[in-house]
Amino acid sequence: MKLASTAKRAARRFASSLPALFGVLVFTFLLMRVLPGDPAVFFASGPNAGKEEIETIRKQMGLDKPVPQQLVLYLYDVGRGNLGRSLMTGQNVTKDLKERLPASLELTFSALLIALVSAIPLGILAALRPGSLIDHGVRLFCALGVCVPTFVSGLLLIYVFYYLLGIAPDPTGRVDIFMTLPPSHTGFLLIDFLIAGDFEGWWAAFKQLILPACTMALFVIAPLARITRASMLASLGSDFVRTARSVGLSWWRIVVTYALRNAILPVITIAGIVFSTMLGANVLVEKVFSWPGVASYALDALLSSDYAPVQGFVLLMAFVFVIVNLVVDVLYGIADPRISIG
Amino acid sequence: MRLTYSKQMLGAAAALAFVVAAGPLQAQTRAETLRYVTGASVNTLDPNIPGSTREAFAVSLSTYDRLVSFGRKQLNGKWVFDLDSIRGELAESYEVSPDGLKITFKLRKDAKFQDGSPVTAEDVKWSLDRAVTAKILGKAQLLTGSLTDASQFKAIDPLTFEVTLPKPDKLALPNLATVYPIIINSKLAKSHTTEEDPWAQAWLKDNTAGSGAYILESFKPGEQVMLKRNDDWNRGPGGKQAFFKRLILQSVPEPATRANLVEKGDVDIVIDLQASDAQSLEAKGKLQVISTPQYNAMTFISMNNQMPPFDKVDVRRAIAYALPYDDMFKAALFGRGELLTGATWADGKPPSGAFPIKQPIKLDLDKAKAYLKAAGFPDGFSTTFSFNVGQSATAEPMAALLKESLGKIGIKVDIQKLPDAQMSTQITEKKLPFFTEGIVAWLPSTDYFYRNFYTGNQRWNYSSIDNAELTSIAQEARFEADKTKYEADGVKLNAINFDQMPQVPLWQPSQDAVMAPSIAGYTYQFHRQVDYRDLSRK
After folding, report:
1. ipTM of the modeled complex
2. Longest C-alpha distance within chain A, in Å?
3. Do B256 and A155 touch (CB under 8 A)?
4. I need a surface site. Which of A220, B217, B359, B490 has the fewest CB within 10 A?
5. Which of B428, B429, B526 is most worth mutating to test chain A (most A CB atoms within 10 A of its CB)?
6. Is the pLDDT of residue B6 over 60?
7. Contact (CB<8Å) B428/A89
8. How close A252 comes to chain B (CA, Å)?
């Protein structure tokens, strides 16, 4: 009963975000056309490409028509699930994104998992002994993680684990090039290898994933750990924890069941935001590890003024953001039954 | 539960057995596999598609054959392509008629497409018709060799093919060896044509239908391409097949990662490292570094000759004498390449008709100031200097030195860094006053350079120079059959170019091919990519 009503309300929430998605779509479309830089000129840059080639490409991209007409055509195409064609890869944007999104999602999920698993205990430890050596240690670690840019930590990890020690495989994409890929079910290699029962492949994919995931995690541990600490401090100092202590409940029950459950809400909020940001903004990690994800795809497209992929990417990110917010709201309800989404 | 467990164990054991069995086999194929990484990516399998990348060109050289191909020669101890030696690829032999108006090709009897059907003159005819008729890149290229119309191509019999020219054009034959005029399996391609797409452009973009040395195994645009050897192919020099059984071409955007990969030996060859990485790898001495000045290319500083103050020739001369060439060369390229300045021309005349040619200019601030005064700008002026983001590794240090040096003669420079698409748009619209760019000619003859890059109101005339004398000599030289007269025309062109100084030549950057010590056969090609068919393992 509760589940059904939650689902219903979630659906209503999603429907109410559709106008925002539409706005994003139109805005990106117009923005791309306002930016200086003519994609036709850029792509017609063979050694002999002249006016005629530029015109051909312009026609191919539909840029010879007036902008309002282009917009209507684009909306019509998007309505049918066609995001246009990328000149850069020569493929349909829908196909490109479908192939690349799982790569980005797999990386981001793993990074978030690593970040949460290390940040929450660190935050709790720091909150249990504020001002102690542990607290300062955590603060130092967080500061280091934030102030080292991801491409520096990425290159550093590659240098140590691949170049010097030779433990990590070569940082070229999602799986060893000599490995046969499993049949694609989910697009997540770790899951697909498991379904195929190929443990060697799973291990190979895991080894490729771990360095970039750690690089991304290092950067986001700080906000998560800090917010856990702050929120835990408030919760540990509250009346109900004092009561729990006074009735002699076990340490575990006090800290985890009572304090943490009450302190977790802001952490979930931040985790949601961190996730959306990581997915779209971690171009540098994707570039350094040659990870075939959506962010580096969008950056390349932007540099060459390839309209369709950029528009498709922004739409996708907006969509993901809506979904993530929805999930966060649902998690709120689970963490604290007093809150309901609607 | 128990059953599933044992099943899993069985699966794992089988997998393990497979690995053990595959172990030595894989080790062997690694030696027979060439792994190449690049910062760019392959975006089409047909090099003719507008927007195709240079990496796509390189793939097409392995998947398709052309009628002819260039031989190679040694230049300063390094192998480079040779424009003057053209050998048959799909053609067994060719003959140019005495008046230079007819080229007759005899096709190889044993040549087969990858699907097993024989290569006939009809296929050649369809492919070349496509190259000059369809709206594709080949059209503009073949134009430079007087190949413009389908009526010029004739299939005499299944193994004889004839090209007719309106004028004896020395670039007609070399043009057929360039990237675009691929020979396509016409039967296969025709079965994928549609009414709007009579030349199967859409299909050929994602599929191959050639007779080349390598067969496509998998193609992920923007990520990787895998190819396996076509064992029937015998069109290498001396009738040999390609050496490597398998090619793996991967995109690795980060240059530092590419350097790590090749140094560790996981990658066999890479050609687009940063100059600093190439230098340090060369210094370490573990790898082979073959560094060839790109003799068909040139980097320059261009000035818009139609836009004040650069419309005054003395301003352009002042700039030419105010740049610290040696420092710029060291800062931008670590000295890897060939400087195009600092020459001495006896009695002020160009020593040869070749192009690009070393200019007799060097840093001389007094001379620069005198020119600036003569131009009517004794106190200098302000301008912006632009370069594109893609070039910033080399252009940024160069721009900083340029700004500092020009400041000394009173020219105030603002540095502007533009995204690549914006830069090319502004160049085409002739809106930039002062910028740096590079050019490359596939068929590097003097008249070709001057006609394409120094004449006409078109994009590639970067400096927008409009000099009637230069234009007429360049057009005339194109059809000049007499070698001495052609050389004299070249000298005249070089003299005008130096006198007018429409843009300042800087250097020819090196192509640094960094490869494992076991790789042999690397040749610098006109398209500035690796021709995988050249390579072998010692």
Report:
1. 0.80
2. 85
3. yes
4. B217
5. B428
6. no
7. no
8. 34
Residue B450 within a domain: yes
Q: Is B520 near chain A, with CB under 8 Å? A: no
- Listed by number, the residues of chain A in 168-187 with a beta carbon closer than 8 Å to a beta carbon of chain B are 170-173, 177-178
Does residue B225 sit in the same domain as residue B310? Answer: no
Res A8 pLDDT > 70 = yes
Residues of B in contact with A49 (CB under 8 A): 50, 137, 140, 459
Q: Does B8 map to a domain?
A: no
User: Which residues have a Cβ under 8 Å from the Cβ of A132 and sit 6 or more positions away?
Assistant: none
B446 lies in which domain range?
A: 297-511
Pair (B266, B131) in one structural domain: yes
For residue range A242-275, list pLDDT tens digits in order. Answer: 888 888 888 888 888 888 888 888 888 888 888 8
Answer yes or no: do B235 and B260 share one domain.
yes
Residue B476 and residue B471: Cα distance in Å, rounded? 9
B456 and B357 within one domain:
yes
B219 secondary structure, DSSP code: E
Which of B264, B419, B428 lies closest to A303 in CB terms?
B419
CB-CB contact of A211 with A168 (8 Å): yes
**B11 at the A interface (CB within 8 A)?**
yes
In tens, the pLDDT along B316-337 reads: 999 999 999 999 999 999 999 9
Tell me the average pLDDT across B163-180: 92
Sorted by where each starts, the structural domains of chain A and their CATH numbers stand as 24-82 (no CATH), 101-335 (1.10.3720.10)
Judged by DSSP in three states, B503 sits in strand
**Which has more pLDDT, B453 or A89?**
B453
Measure in Å the smallest separation between the Cα of A42 and chain B Cα atoms: 5
Minimum CA–CA partner of A92 in chain B = B221
| CA–CA gap between residue A180 and residue A177 (Å, rounded) | 8
Same domain, B520 and B454: no
Residues 6+ apart with CB under 8 A from B457: B464, B466
Write down the pLDDT at residue B15. 44
pLDDT tier at A49, thresholds 50, 70, 90: low
Residue of B18, B139, B424 best to disrupt the A interface, most CBs of A under 10 A: B424
**Which residues in A lie closer than 8 A to residue B426 (C-beta atoms)?**
36
B252 in helix, strand or coil? coil
Alpha helices in A184-198 (DSSP H): 189-196
Cis before A149 (ω within 30)? no
**If you average pLDDT over every residue of chain A, what do you get?**
85
- Chain-chain contact of A200 with B19 (C-beta, under 8 angstroms): yes
Minimal CA separation from A103 to chain B, in Å = 12
Taking CA atoms, B11 is separated from A120, A198, A206, B15, B343, in Å, by 38, 8, 20, 6, 72
**Mutation target among A41, A85, A181, A304 for the B interface, most CBs of B within 10 A:** A41
Distance CA B55, CA B36 (A): 11
Query: Are B419 and A173 inside 8 Å of each other by CB?
Result: no
CB of A198 within 8 Å of any CB in chain B? yes
Question: Do residues B218 and B329 both lie within one domain?
Answer: no
Task: Tell whether B163 and B309 lie within a shared domain.
Answer: no
Residue B283 lies in a domain: no
For residue A241 the two structure tokens come to 């924890």
Planar angle of CA B380, B319, B329, nearest 5 degrees: 130
Q: What is the CATH number of the domain that holds B143?
A: 3.40.190.10
In a domain, B278, yes or no: no
A171-225: per-residue pLDDT in tens? 888 888 777 788 888 888 888 888 888 888 899 899 999 999 999 998 889 889 9
Q: What is the per-residue pLDDT across B17-39, written as a single tens digit (0 to 9) for each?
A: 444 444 444 444 788 999 999 99
CA atoms of A263 and A226, how far apart (whole Å):
12
- Cβ–Cβ contact A88 with B under 8 A: yes
Cβ-Cβ contacts under 8 Å, A97 against chain B? none
